[in-house]
Amino acid sequence: xxxxLFLIYKTFKFIVxxxxxxxxxxxxxxxxxxxxxxxxxxxxxxxxxxxxxxxxTLTKKRKEEIxxxxxxxxxxxxxxxxxxxxxxxxxxxxxxxxxxxHIITDAIKENKKIILISAHYGNxxxxxxxxxxxxxxxxxxxxxxxxxxFNDDMxxxxxxxxxxxxxxxxxxxGLIKALRDDRILGLAIDQHIQLKRGIEINFLGYRASxxxxxxxxxxxxxxxxxxxxxxxxxxxxxxxxxxxxxxVENLTSEDKVKELTQLQADSxxxxxxxxxxxxxxxHRRFKAFxxxxxx
Length: 295
Hints:
Elements: H1 2-18, H2 21-38, H3 40-54, H4 60-83, H5 89-93, E1 96-99, H6 102-109, E2 114-118, H7 126-134, E3 138-142, H8 148-159, E4 163-167, H9 171-180, E5 184-188, E6 199-203, E7 206-210, H10 213-221, E8 224-234, E9 237-242, H11 256-274, H12 287-290
Parallel strand pairs: 1-9, 2-5, 2-8, 3-4, 3-5
Antiparallel strand pairs: 6-7, 8-9
Helix pairs in contact: 2-4, 10-11
């Protein structure tokens, strides 16, 4: 079964890389429609999140639009993951518009250790391609896929652009080593995590759990945390928006880990509420404290 699913993926990959660009979008939109129609479980989770966060401040029609756009973004992101390893830096640069680039270039000039934090938002896979080629090699953390065919293909794609993926278990030492090796850490930290592995914060206005390893690593190494978001402007067009650095030097509370983690949650919340259509709404983000909304 694993190999059969991998063959389906390879067939999809073969098709999208050979279709004319103007047809690729229609093909991906059709795939999105099919997935959105049949994926009732995650569609229900997504609507539960939207109802929970927005209550009656948005119409049902607008919430459905956000959810559909979220599915579209995930399918487009899969396409970018497939296409980007076949492109060079010049070709990828045609896809992106940079905003506040001086934030990362200044940090590099000042020889600072850099942790880029983001969410599963827009084309987050650009961390493994564009950031690696444009600035410095990147190191990320992810769960190893159970299907080893998919996992091997994913690792091969990321290595093409000098991006390194560490397994979640025991990743802290590897991340610290990566910083010492002058690599940029790129971490998507917006998803639910068990409280015993993270801490309680406020996210999108509600209690939630969040990983605190980025804060602990920054405090240990003196690294600067830079939020960055890969905003979808259209098919194959993105704005990479670097936000003001979160420096450990500016923390004021006794619990610096919690303060720094909350600042990261605040940054992600602000961006998601600003343009919710680009975020992956379909995971059970609030189940640590509000599991009943998913029943």
